[in-house]
Inverse folding.
């Protein structure tokens, strides 16, 4: 083992010496620690920078969808034909839509631990039965403040009758939202009381819990909509684009700084006695 280690050290030292060169009164002579550190740090910093840059690009794409919706108005919410892949969810993400229907309060719920202006409350999620169909879509009607005692739930109203909902397509993330640690089946749901406060949300679990067909897409109610909304300060993609780009430039700057520090630390001024030895060689 010690023989292999010694051989590796000799080969590494030889490689480093191979890149040594003289520049006027200075010599470029990097250390082993400097080379290893630079080779690790620069790719790592560049990778972090690209990660932030790609996040910014995704939000730029989302912002373009926002802008397109504002110019062209709301699209009609797509109705499923119950055929496999009849609606491509990815194509509808973040688009502005409109749909008419009636709220069903029996299967609405409060999404817990939602923060607005540093205050903790709930999002009200209400299913809407789409007019002239048997299909439903979940509508996030906005944020309401919770009571001082968490078990004392807030009281709120839900409008009755036909409602015209305008809002933005919202596809709940399956990585973040989940009703429970495991999926609830339709048979299990028959023996379970309806859960009014949820800590997390998973559209698949919701579909198993209710006795009707629910779209894979939900709607965040537009701030200007009059369809029974509450506080709706939805985050806009543009608010984070500058932040992600700033982080990206910061990581790229770290990579450049690492390279410059490595070059600076690897150069040293040749002393007279060293200069004589080098000339002799």
């Amino acid at each position: 083992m010690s023989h292999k280690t010694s051989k590796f050290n000799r080969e590494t030292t030889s490689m480093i010496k191979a890149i040594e060169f003289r520049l006027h009164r200075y010599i470029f002579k990097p250390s082993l620690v400097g080379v290893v550190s630079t080779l690790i740090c620069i790719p790592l910093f560049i990778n972090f920078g690209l990660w932030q840059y790609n996040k910014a690009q995704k939000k730029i794409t989302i912002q373009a969808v926002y802008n397109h919706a504002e110019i062209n108005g709301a699209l009609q919410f797509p109705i499923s034909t119950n055929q496999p892949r009849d609606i491509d969810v990815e194509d509808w993400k973040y688009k502005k839509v409109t749909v008419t229907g009636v709220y069903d309060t029996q299967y609405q719920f409060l999404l817990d631990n939602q923060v607005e202006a540093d205050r903790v409350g709930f999002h009200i999620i209400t299913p809407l039965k789409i007019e002239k169909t048997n299909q439903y879509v979940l509508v996030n009607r906005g944020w309401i403040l919770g009571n001082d005692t968490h078990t004392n739930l807030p009281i709120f109203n839900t409008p009755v009758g036909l409602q015209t909902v305008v809002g933005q397509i919202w596809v709940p993330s399956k990585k973040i939202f989940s009703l429970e640690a495991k999926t609830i089946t339709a048979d299990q749901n028959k023996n379970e009381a309806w859960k009014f406060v949820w800590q997390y949300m998973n559209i698949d679990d919701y579909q198993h819990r209710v006795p009707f067909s629910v779209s894979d897409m939900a709607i965040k109610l537009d701030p200007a909509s009059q369809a029974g909304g509450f506080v709706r300060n939805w985050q806009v993609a543009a608010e984070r684009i500058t932040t992600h780009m700033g982080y990206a430039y910061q990581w790229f700057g770290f990579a450049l700084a690492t390279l410059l520090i490595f070059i600076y630390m690897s150069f040293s001024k040749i002393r007279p006695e060293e200069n004589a030895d080098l000339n002799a060689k």
Remarks:
- The first helix runs from residue 2 to 18.
- The first strand starts at residue 21 and ends at 23.
